[in-house]
Amino acid sequence: MTGGAGLPGPVRREVLAADGTPLACWDFAAPAGSAPRPAVLMVHGNGLNGLTWSPVARECQSRGLRCVALDLRAHGSSGRPGRRGPGGPGLAWERFGEDVLAAVDQLGLRPVVGAGHSAGATALLLAEAARPGTMAAIWAWEPIMAVPGVHRRETRGQELAERARHRRSRFASHAEARQHFSGRGIFAGLDDRALEGYLEGGLRAAPDGGWRLSCDPEDEATVYEGGGSHRAWEVLTALGCPVRLVGGELSPAVPPSELARIQARLAGSELAVVPGLGHLGPFQGPLWAATDIEHWAASARA
Prior knowledge:
alpha/beta; Rossmann fold; 8-stranded mixed beta sheet; 3-stranded antiparallel beta sheet; about 20% strand
């Protein structure tokens, strides 16, 4: 992958998670001569991968920011740990938080602003709660957690798990995969560059020919099933940095009313609901997302 407007393309770097799982990180370096600013660590949602962030990262990069997009375990080009069911050690959501800390430590990302989508936003919150002060600030698009009084999370997780288990995972070519996903389901309205990044990071050559999804549908389902069993809600009060919660007006995943409940529990946080966008908002409106992330990163420096 090459950069746009004369910018270098992302460099793949590898770190090791606490349990030894290899993690791929895509480093969009700041242009030479850029003023020192916090790096931005971008973390994707379940079933996606770091390169889905490409249009957002490139726009931030063009504004002088270094962006690193992490492939969580069992996603993209990262390794796959042992799977032992929802909440098990291999794919428990707390492990995603540990993956974030591994990237921060081993790539020297301090100071760092976290930008996360869905499960990736939750991973950033879990990482900061485990080690307060790691993040200068967090930009969190619709983090997934079990909010007290909201009883649909477990049912929703089971529904998404069933869909994942029936997801088509093998294709004869990238072109066939592109045709299959374009405008379909959650990919409807996705920016073309985000879809290309998803395909580039999310397909691997199959041993018997063709291509397969790098995130195995069974792993994706397992992660969905664990979405209500982690402790993100309980540890929100331990965070040591400001948080900007962001969500889509049209999103059924974490509707504005649920985001408001999360925001009320987070001291020093703010909330923004974006008209016209759904759960994959950062990848539907990457220019808007990049601008908002840049502004939040700038406020964290002040």
